[in-house]
Each structure stands twice: as structure tokens, then as C-alpha cells.
Specification:
The protein is an all-alpha fold and 52 residues long. Helices cover 79% and strands 0% of the residues. It has two helices and no strands. It has helices spanning 5-13, 19-50. α1 (5-13) packs antiparallel against α2 (19-50). The longest helix is centred in the middle third of the chain and has 32 residues, at 19-50. It starts with a helix and ends with a helix.
């Protein structure tokens, strides 16, 4: 997560609007909360099917 703040810091240093960067960080965080459990479940299901 610390790397996500770099975009915001660059915007603030260069006196630019940081709202787009902040929205992107928020959306990607929410998306990861949804996709990580789905990928985990898929990997476990494939593991059960293939017996690895």
C-alpha cells in the first residue's frame, strides 16, 4: 500500500489535482478485496480437481 501513495505525493508536489489518483487507489483496493478471494477459491478448486 505505501507505493499507492506515490501518485498522490507526485500530484501534491506538482500542485495538480489528486482526486483521480485517489479514486484509482480506492477502486483498485475494493477490486482486490473482491478478486483475491475469488482467485484463492479457484486455485483451491483446481487443486482438488488435479490432485496437486
Amino acid at each position: 500500500m505505501p507505493v499507492a501513495t506515490l501518485g498522490t505525493m507526485f500530484c501534491l508536489i506538482n500542485k495538480r489535482d489528486d482526486s483521480l489518483v485517489t479514486q484509482g487507489i480506492f477502486i483498485s483496493t475494493i477490486a482486490s478485496m473482491l478478486t483475491i478471494p475469488c482467485v484463492y477459491a479457484l486455485v483451491n478448486h483446481l487443486n482438488d480437481l488435479l490432485g496437486i
